[in-house]
Design brief:
Oligomer: single chain
Number of strands: 7
Number of helices: 9
Pfam family, one: GGDEF
Order of helices and strands: HHHHHEHHEEHEEEHE
Domain GGDEF: 145-276
Structural class: alpha+beta
Distance between the termini: 44 Å
Number of domains: 2
Protein name: Diguanylate cyclase (GGDEF) domain-containing protein
GO biological process, one term: negative regulation of bacterial-type flagellum-dependent cell motility
GO cellular component, one term: plasma membrane
Length: 276
């Protein structure tokens, strides 16, 4: 845990103790509003509705128990009513603050995901691939693990757009992404690098197994029904496969796969070609 993480926990603990001490020496019930400080800090640390509800309930219980223990001889009926009203007001203020914090956190997460994912298909984009490769290449070399890259694009995709329209083309891209996501493993990295071109990175996978998997993907797409406005669109893909060799950077790795893909397209399409 870094110093920033430790500081927030120290702040929460200190503000909670300070609130209890102040309310022990002073009988002004509105001082319990100070409990908002550690409560809000906790929600900033973990901005979820579950945290909000739990903290809110525990805070209300803490107020009732503490007030009874601190001032039980002086706790009158009207004090209890006032204490409940104070607790309700505190809960409302706390919930409103938590709402905006949770909403802000979700927006931040969505923006982060948007920066690393393709908006049409929902899979990763090239930027994510670059960041991932910066970490996985040194790790693969250190652990002496194989790594295979599958690059494919949709055969005659321009013709699909020209014949059926761009909405049909978008449907094809989205469905291919869904179909392949259902086939790959959680550890595999699926990326749309532009247009109708995609990449699947297979960590800890040999070229031999990568070729077999690429053939499975090719057949899966070929056998999938793509229906647009009641019309079936026959879709196939051409695939290039290559294995990572030590010393390559991402560009050289992609270039080898692209050369294999080019051969697949030049020699008939709807096939798998691999390169060493």
């Amino acid at each position: 845990m870094n110093n920033g993480g430790k500081s927030i926990y120290v702040f929460i603990f200190t503000s909670l103790i300070a609130t209890l001490v102040i309310n022990y020496y002073f009988s002004l019930l509105s001082l319990w509003m100070l409990l908002l400080i550690p409560a809000v800090a906790i929600v900033f640390l973990s901005p979820t509705w579950k945290t909000t509800i739990v903290v809110g309930i525990l805070g209300f219980i803490l107020i009732i128990l503490s007030e009874f223990l601190f001032h039980q001889r002086h706790l009158l009926y009207q004090d209890i009513i006032y204490l409940i009203i104070t607790g309700i007001l505190e809960w409302i203020i706390f919930t409103v603050i938590a709402f905006f914090q949770i909403k802000t956190e979700r927006v931040i997460i969505e923006l982060g995901n948007f920066a690393l994912t393709d908006p049409l298909t929902g899979i990763y984009n090239r930027r994510y691939l670059e960041l991932y490769m910066e970490k996985i290449i040194p790790l693969s070399q250190e652990q002496e693990q194989t790594m295979t890259l599958i690059m494919f694009d949709i055969d005659h995709f321009k013709k699909i757009n020209d014949t059926y329209g761009h909405h049909a083309g978008d449907m094809v891209l989205q469905k291919i992404a869904r179909v392949i996501k259902g086939v790959i493993l959680h550890s595999d990295v699926f990326v749309r690098i532009g247009g109708e071109e995609f990449i699947i990175l297979l960590p800890n996978c040999s070229l031999e197994h990568g070729i077999k998997f690429a053939e499975r993907i090719r057949k899966t797409v070929e056998n999938t029904k793509f229906i647009y406005k009641g019309i079936r669109i026959f879709v196939t893909i051409s695939i290039g496969v290559t294995e990572y060799t030590e010393g390559q950077d991402l560009e050289k790795f992609l270039k080898k796969a692209d050369q294999a893909l080019y051969q697949a397209k030049e020699t008939g399409r709807n096939k798998v070609v691999w390169g060493e």
